[in-house]
């Protein structure tokens, strides 16, 4: 039947209401239709049969087949929640947990947080009614602390298993053990590609259920010569596609929020210059710290005649499927945690992706039609410079967090823990040593009372130690603020390109002596004094959303502090106590001023520098403690606080010897001189 649109008569209220209903029904239809169109749908029955027949099942299916959104619904429909138990589904990424649960709630016609919910660190969007629970793998790990047999779940889905995050890898070992004594628990391991055999072997030869993918051909293009500036190359490629290629959305893979924002600004600027000469180009970002109402924008349908460009981190590689992507632009990089087990130095660096990743990315272009993937590197580089597969996270990160968690679950022998791939021996040993130095373990490697309290906090051991040390130094109120501001890993400062000078002046106005931690505290305090005003944030180039999140985190940490029976007390005048408390947690991260404005880490003599955004950048104190390292052109310390070397002996006597901390002078460099030196070094 063909329909032709009739002339539209401006409606009455009643008419409009009717239209809303029909639109609603249409949307319902589309959801039903979409569900039926997914590759997993024809396998619904056989999948449920396989799940009924086996306790553990490995499910392999290409990204976008409907594994994450559909399978939990099938299980619900099949009655797996009848006895009052839940279905859990883990995700390696926060954004995925949030966005997928939102989608499933919509498909089921319920409010997010009721029957369908999600749980991520510092944010629990579930309720008594929740039966489908999406959560980060890290949150499920923490649930083991309160419910070691996961008794409230009838099914647990370890999703995106191929991502091989540290937490997922640990979950494998724990959950395999639980499945042995809880024969009623169904366990599904779901993965996008390849590794199914390996998972099957690990889970005592569990059967593999394969969902055949549908995929259209994707043409791969490489650049002729290496690109010096891949952000710029992305922008140019997007515009080339937009001008020369048929309609269809574009997906660009970048490494993080900053790159995405830069790319977005450049694209906006250049399309504005082109004006009406080109078709409409919608630019939508997606990354972990993007506010959730903006995350859903990537899923909105592109209006007819327009083109959408999605600027994404590798969240879009397998965790999220965005429909209608025809073109993929892949610069070939990814941001990764890297860890040096010898020096204990951890840092965030941009690294080339693996071939497996590059092929996943390309695959995103072929879901709805034949697509094209533009790789911003040469074919030679692909062949010779990319590794076959990414190294699992467990083999390249600090294990302190996980060790303390496993210890509090009563798993003492970590060397013989059932790892899918074991971590390097020296990493494990270093984690044990660090926890010992922090006082979390005794010399037998057992959890101490302090360690037990530390495990209550969903933060790194150094941070939980800092929080607990605030009891002794009587400044828990201030430390809570500092911890919350540091844990909120999205940027506090708003720095629009056209107002950089104003923004930087505003930022500098918050600087207080002693270091960035105190500056962060100052910002929070001023904001709290305005009764958490958004206007105040706006006027001071502070990101209101980040502050609100810091406030949420702070509230939660405060609750945990009560749980471990530490009073919230304030000692605002005394920054020495505050800085000592920071030192008590972060004493590994100590660096000493060396020649030419450089710093050297105390234990391993590695060269590091103060980040240019730090309030200490021009101060160059003799001794500093940093919160984290980021590697760009050099190893930069981000969030730095000034300390005195003798504090280290006070807070970590079993770690530092006074000989290591000898210093002819405790004085700072004269102001100004330090700056000249740094510039000399950096130019
Ligand atoms: P898989 O887990 O196998 O990769 P998913 O279940 O995530 O597949 O995706 C199935 C479908 O659901 C895809 O077409 C995807 O675009 C759609 N989808 C997922 N999340 C959302 C969302 N938040 N909004 C709209 N559509 C979504
Ligand atoms: Mg999925």
TrEMBL record:
Record's keyword terms, sorted: ATP-binding, Coiled coil, Helicase, Hydrolase, mRNA processing, mRNA splicing, Nucleotide-binding
Region (Disordered): 662-683
Enzyme class: hydrolase
GO function term, MF aspect, one: RNA helicase activity
Biological process according to GO: developmental process involved in reproduction; mRNA processing; RNA splicing
Residues in coiled coil: 1-34
GO cellular component: catalytic step 2 spliceosome
EC number: 3.6.4.13
UniProt catalytic activity: ATP + H2O = ADP + phosphate + H(+)
Ranges where the Helicase C-terminal domain occurs: 237-410
Helicase ATP-binding domain span: 48-212
Domain of life of the organism encoding this protein: Eukaryota
Name listed for the protein in its UniProt record: RNA helicase
Organism name: Tigriopus californicus (Marine copepod)
Entire protein: shown range: 338 to 1020 of 1020
């Amino acid at each position: 039947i063909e329909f032709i649109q009739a002339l539209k008569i401006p409606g009455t209220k009643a008419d409009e209401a009717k239209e809303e209903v029909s639109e609603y029904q249409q949307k319902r239809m589309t959801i039903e239709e979409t569900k039926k169109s997914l590759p997993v749908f024809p396998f619904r029955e056989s999948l449920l049969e396989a799940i009924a027949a086996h306790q553990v099942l490995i499910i392999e299916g290409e990204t976008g087949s409907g594994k994450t959104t559909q399978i939990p619904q099938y299980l619900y429909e099949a009655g797996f929640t009848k006895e009052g138990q839940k279905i859990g589904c883990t995700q390696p990424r926060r954004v995925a947990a949030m966005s997928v649960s939102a989608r499933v709630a919509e498909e089921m016609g319920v409010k997010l947080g009721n029957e369908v919910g999600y749980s991520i660190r510092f944010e629990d969007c579930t309720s008594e009614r929740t039966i489908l629970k999406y959560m980060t793998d890290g949150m499920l790990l923490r649930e083991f602390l309160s419910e070691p047999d996961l008794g409230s779940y009838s099914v647990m889905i370890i999703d995106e298993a191929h991502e091989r995050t540290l937490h997922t890898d640990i979950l494998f070992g724990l959950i395999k053990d639980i499945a042995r004594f809880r024969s009623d628990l169904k366990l599904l391991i779901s993965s996008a590609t390849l590794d199914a055999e390996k998972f099957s072997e690990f889970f005592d030869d569990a059967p593999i259920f394969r969902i055949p993918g549908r995929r259209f051909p994707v043409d791969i293009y490489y650049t002729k010569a290496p690109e010096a500036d891949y952000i710029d190359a992305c922008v140019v490629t997007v515009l080339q596609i937009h001008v020369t290629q048929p309609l269809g959305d574009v997906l660009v893979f970048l490494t993080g929020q900053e790159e995405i924002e830069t790319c977005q600004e450049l694209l906006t600027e250049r399309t504005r210059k082109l004006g009406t000469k080109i078709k409409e180009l919608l630019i939508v970002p997606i990354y972990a710290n993007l506010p959730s109402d903006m995350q859903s924008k990537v899923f909105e349908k592109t209006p007819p005649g327009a083109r959408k460009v999605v600027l994404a981190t590798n969240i879009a590689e397998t965790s999220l499927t965005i429909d209608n992507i025809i073109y993929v632009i892949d610069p070939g990089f990814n941001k990764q945690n890297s860890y040096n087990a010898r020096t204990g130095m951890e840092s965030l660096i941009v690294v080339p992706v693996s071939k497996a990743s590059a092929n996943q990315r390309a695959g995103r272009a072929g879901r709805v039609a034949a697509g094209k993937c533009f790789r911003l590197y040469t074919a030679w580089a692909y062949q010779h410079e990319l590794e076959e597969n990414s190294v699992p996270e467990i083999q390249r990160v600090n294990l302190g967090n996980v060790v303390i968690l496993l210890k509090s679950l009563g798993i003492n022998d970590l060397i013989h823990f059932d790892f899918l791939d074991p971590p390097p021996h020296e990493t494990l040993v270093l984690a044990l040593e660090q926890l010992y130095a922090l006082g979390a373990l005794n010399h037998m490697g057992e959890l101490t009372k302090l360690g037990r309290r530390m495990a209550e906090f969903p933060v790194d051991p150094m941070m939980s130690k800092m929080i607990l040390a605030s009891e002794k130094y009587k400044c828990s109120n201030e430390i809570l603020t500092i911890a919350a501001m540091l844990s909120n890993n999205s940027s506090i400062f708003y720095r629009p390109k056209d107002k950089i000078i104003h923004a930087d002046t505003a930022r500098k106005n918050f600087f207080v002596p002693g270091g960035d931690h105190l500056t962060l505290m100052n910002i929070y305090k001023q904001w709290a004094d305005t009764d958490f005003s958004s206007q105040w944030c706006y006027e001071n180039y502070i990101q209101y959303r980040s502050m609100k999140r810091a406030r949420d985190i702070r509230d939660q940490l405060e609750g945990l502090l009560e749980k471990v029976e530490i009073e919230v007390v304030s000692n605002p005048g005394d920054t020495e106590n505050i800085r000592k408390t920071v030192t008590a947690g972060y004493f590994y991260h100590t660096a000493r001023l060396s020649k030419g404005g450089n710093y050297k880490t105390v234990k391993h003599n590695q060269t590091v520098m103060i980040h240019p955004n730090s309030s200490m950048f021009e101060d160059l104190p003799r001794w500093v403690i940093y919160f984290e390292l980021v590697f760009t052109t050099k190893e930069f310390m981000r969030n730095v606080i000034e300390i005195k070397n003798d504090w280290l002996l006070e807070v970590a006597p079993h770690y530092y010897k006074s000989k290591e901390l000898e210093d002819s002078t405790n004085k700072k460099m004269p102001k100004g001189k330090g700056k000249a030196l740094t510039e000399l070094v950096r130019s």
